[in-house]
Amino acid sequence: MTYIVGLTGGIGSGKSTIAAMFAERGVPIIDADIVAREVVAKGSPLLAKIVDYFGRQVLTASGELDRTALRRLVFGDKSKTEWLNQLLHPAIRERMLQQLQQQTALYVLWVVPLLIENNLTEYCHRVLVVDVSESTQLQRAVRRDKNNEQQIKKIMLAQAGREQRLAKADDVINNDRTLDEAEADLRRQVEKLHQCYSAAGKQHEK
Ligand code: ATP
Predict the structure, then answer these.
(1) Does 146 score more than 90 pLDDT?
(2) Which residues contact ligand 1 via a Cβ below 6 A?
(3) What is the pLDDT of residues 167-181, one digit of tens each?
(4) What separation in angstroms does the CA of 142 have from each of 146, 170, 178, 179?
């Protein structure tokens, strides 16, 4: 299997921003959020199961999964949340592992928000953490999602803390400075890591 670099970080830390800088260098990206959408795509067997359980109210007019409707239906309901997680989590994991196995590049970047929480580091040869202070995280996530602070704080509490994440990191990119200040420097750091991962991937191939 290809050399796997797991990229993680808390909500709003900048995972997608940093992953895009690797993608610019031609690195294949497997993104858990995208896979999570693929497994419930229109016409998928999993979407049919969700409709059987919750009714057609979880579908949009065009037959796609209505995520907001689903979120509302499971919110605060432990058994429904568990049912959904038990359906989705193994399917997402299996599809990600399948996609990892199909890679032929020197290395692949595997972007997973809950890499540490879900013990997926065991599949990674290297773990890269995008690190920001909690206040930066809160501010950026609130701005991006137009969410209220309480909701973001709740999500942050459910995720691994900064220390716990850093303890699992082989490499760390700090993303506290604004892109205006730091974009060139971030690109330099990504380039350096890209060289290291490519070399490690080559070594791993042998
Ligand atoms: P999530 O897991 O919540 O989807 P993420 O870790 O992928 O988030 P991004 O989407 O990359 O994080 O970044 C969160 C928000 O912060 C985005 O709106 C992004 O444009 C912005 N952002 C990221 N890095 C910086 C930065 N250095 N300066 C200013 N804004 C930034």
Answers:
(1) no
(2) 9, 11-17, 113, 140-141, 144, 175, 178-179, 182
(3) 999 999 999 999 999
(4) 5, 29, 16, 17
